[in-house]
Sequence to fold (259 residues):
Amino acid sequence: MKVLEKFSLQGKVAFITGGARGIGKAVATGFAQAGANIVIADLDIDEATKTANELAANEGVQAVAFKCDVTDPKSVEALINFIDEKFGALHVAFCNAGICINEPAKDMTYEHWSKVININLTGVFLSAQAAGNYMIKKGIKGSIINTASMSAHIVNVPQPQCAYNASKAGVIMLTKSLAIEWAQYGIRVNSISPGYIGTELVKASPTLIPLINTWNEMAPMHRLGEPEELQTVTLYLACDGSSFTTGSDVVVDGAFTCF
Ligand code: NDP
Fold:
């Protein structure tokens, strides 16, 4: 097989949590352009449906939306049942839904702490566990990719975000743990750690908008990343070309964490 053929996802099925917009949408588009059928799993079903319809119209694959709350085990189970009924297989799981609450540790409420941990860490566990169990049951040697962050590696400043940082560090160790447990089934588990990316998580947050210039001054490349700049790295992790890559975290941050 020639090298570019190894990047094909032709005939494969992928779910993307938090896939309605932002990084999830860009990655879903990349997977679709590589030939995968797509399930956009998101809380925001209207936006998810819009995204799925766009992919189906533009990329010539099947793309559907499913309303899913990654913090609810029943909702995640329903997602897997839906995929099984619709496609009868799942090869790639991008466990990506996440939020950030910027609050100093001394003022952080239990509710805010729990919300961030539940979506960013427990939600990734529930999505990855359901995908992994399905792949094991079906004998599918699939790929699971979790979204961590450069905030798993450094404490980003000046904004306070201890729950976010802790949740993302947890995603990296969860990823390594699952990679070890599921290597015997041929299921690979990796994570990505993006730097600041210009999505609504950043650009629509009144707390974060004023900080964008500060971050850009600190950044070696003096800019935010674009969601599309995560397409090739996630395609690499999703496809069979990365068959010996598991338990890895790939940092894509324009060298932000290098100093
Ligand atoms: P966005 O806020 O643009 O998109 C996140 C999507 O996830 C939204 O559609 C949101 O729906 C959905 N979502 C939120 N909660 C849940 C839930 N419980 N179940 C299912 N879906 C949910 O974020 P980004 O695209 O920027 O971020 C995606 C991931 O990348 C996150 O994990 C984030 O932490 C991580 N990341 C982002 C960086 C950045 O700079 N943007 C940098 C590093 C990592 P709704 O609108 O209804 O809330």
The helical segments are 22-33, 45-59, 73-87, 110-138, 162-182, 200-203, 212-218, 231-238.
